[in-house]
Predict the structure.
Amino acid sequence: MPPNNSTFLLSAEDIGVRLSERWIFRYVNVSVESGQLVCIIGGNGAGKSTCVKTLLGLIPLTEGKIEKQKSMTIGYVPQKLAITPILPMTVRRLLTLGNHRCNRTEIEHVLFVVGLEKLGNPLVTTLSGGEFQRLMLARAILRKPQLLVLDEPLQGVDIANTDILNDLILTIRDELQCGVLIVSHDIERVFQDADDVLVLVPHEHDEVLTDNPVWNRSS
């Protein structure tokens, strides 16, 4: 059962995912409450993105359990989003995809929050890396999320915009009083800003099919 706590959003206990006969991650315990910033860090191949998608219910668990607040609204910024130049997509069109109930005032507000209010309505493919990530953040907060999940939001962002985005995430957390779960490589800021840090390590050497009589770990 979820904790008896009005700020509870999400809790995972000893979760693990096994894909293609190997463990992507195991033994993960993490919880997020309203107003908390929880960071996931780890080297390449540690399963950070898979862990996030598992917590969101996009990838099924192999072991462990996840509890979530009922009817929780989630804003999600994925690690990558490919926009094909063949199909022109403007800034405001991307914002409204999946957010059909939003109105013009709400759109202008989130653009102001992320500092893109003067951008106009150009094609998304013309944006810089930092502008695109702020646009994705605007799209996520348009949902007024109780939990904001960001999978490496600083990827492809230059150094000048890194601190801007980090500060922006903290501002959004404080204003919305939402929980924030973020995958990050900015170790200095992680330990400066985070309420909790989850460190993932690769599990490529774990026994992958213990229930398979053909598998022999010593072979």
